[in-house]
Amino acid sequence: MARVVVDVMLKPEILDPQGRAIAQKLPQLGFDGVTAVRQGKRFEVEIDGEADEAALDRVRKIAETMLANPVIETFDVRVL
Amino acid sequence: MNAARIGVITFPGSLDDRDAARAITMAGAEAVPLWHADHDLRDVDAVVLPGGFSYGDYLRAGALARFAPLMTEVIAAAGNGLPVLGICNGFQVLCESHLLPGALLPNAGLHFVCRDQRLRIDDAGTAWTADYSTGQEVVIPVKNADGRYAADRETLAELEGEGRVVARYLDLNPNGSLNDIAGIRNEAGNVVGLMPHPEHAVESLTGPSTDGLGFFTSIVKGLVGA
Predict the structure, then answer these.
(1) For B168-224, how does the pLDDT look when each residue is reduced to its tens digit (9 = 90+)?
(2) Domains of chain B by range and CATH?
(3) Which residues of B are catalytic?
(4) pLDDT number for residue B226
(5) Can you tell me where the transmembrane regions are (chain A) (predicted)?
(6) All residues at 6 or more sequence positions from A79 whose CB lies less than 8 Å from its CB, including other chains
(7) CB distance B106–A13 less than 8 Å?
(8) Among B94, B100, B105, which would you mutate to test the A interface (most chain A Cβ atoms within 10 Å of its Cβ)?
(9) Which residues, other chains included, contact B48 with Cβ-Cβ below 8 Å and sequence gap of 6+?
């Protein structure tokens, strides 16, 4: 069994009001020097067998079919 | 002649299917209940995807409903010209299904917004807006958490250039939607997505106006005249 991580992020040009709200709060908490925060999603996908290239391809297919909406998001697949 | 048959899909988490069916009946058509898990459009002449929170809006609004069994038939039929109207959650499902371009994201203000909204009908040439005149101003409620229409620059330019923005928010933009977009259509004009809820503006007793009825009378007249 292997675990594959899919990180999904909004495309840079898409406004992320949640990330912006977080970034705006940080100075009040004493955390200076943060210029921006972008909030994304992380999926951990458990698969049978090894995380070989074929398995990763399958996870990439899952990511582009369902986990991410390619119209507004990008994704990144890696083995944990 | 038999009344037009307009289907309303119920997904788990749909909320406004009954209101949509009622509006369809008021417009003079037969409202046909459709079930998300079937593979049967029951020979309807048009389909409405109602508002609500299908599948809890898990993952993204409309993302799981897009894979409901019945959507296979809806996508195929829409490609063959079947009139389809997606309201609110239904609009989100149509975007996730790629029947309409772009996507609907959480409101820019991060709050659920519920208000009587002034709109301008910018395209009265669709199957669902023919009973309006282009430029007509109407008041129809919006109620959504994920109503911020977003699309890349090319898509937006295409929508604007081809006059495919069906309705636009007036006075204020409730969700940060690009270009104040409240509704769009596909190239053929048979598929329309609308964030506001015309089915909640069909009777003076329960709505701010009866301005929403036009979406339903438009399709009924079009089908009867066809």
Answers:
(1) 999 999 999 999 999 999 999 999 999 999 999 999 999 999 999 999 999 999 998
(2) 5-225 (3.40.50.880)
(3) 88, 197, 199
(4) 64
(5) none
(6) A2, A3, A4, A5, A51, A56
(7) no
(8) B105
(9) B6, B7, B8, B9, B20, B24, B84, B85, B86, B87, B90
Token pair 């995807």: residue? B49
Contacts of A10 in chain B (CB under 8 A): 105
The model's pLDDT over B71-122, given as tens digits with 9 standing for 90+, comes to: 999 999 999 999 999 999 999 999 999 999 999 999 999 999 999 999 999 9
Nearest Cα to Cα of residue B127 among B43, B193, B8, B222: B222
pTM score, whole prediction:
0.95
| Cβ pairs A/B, distance under 8 A | 37
Cross-chain Cβ contact A71/B108 below 8 Å: no
pLDDT bucket at A28, cuts 50 / 70 / 90:
very high
B44-55 per-position pLDDT tens digit:
999 999 999 999
Q: Report ipTM for this prediction.
A: 0.90
Other C-beta atoms closer than 10 Å to the C-beta of B132 total 24
**Strand stretches in chain B, DSSP E:** 5-10, 30-35, 46-49, 84-87, 103-105, 113-121, 137-144, 148-150, 165-169, 181-185, 191-194
Task: Spell out which residues of chain A touch residue B59, defining contact as CB-CB under 8 Å.
Answer: 66-67
Superfamily of domain A2-79: Phosphoribosylformylglycinamidine synthase subunit PurS (3.30.1280.10)
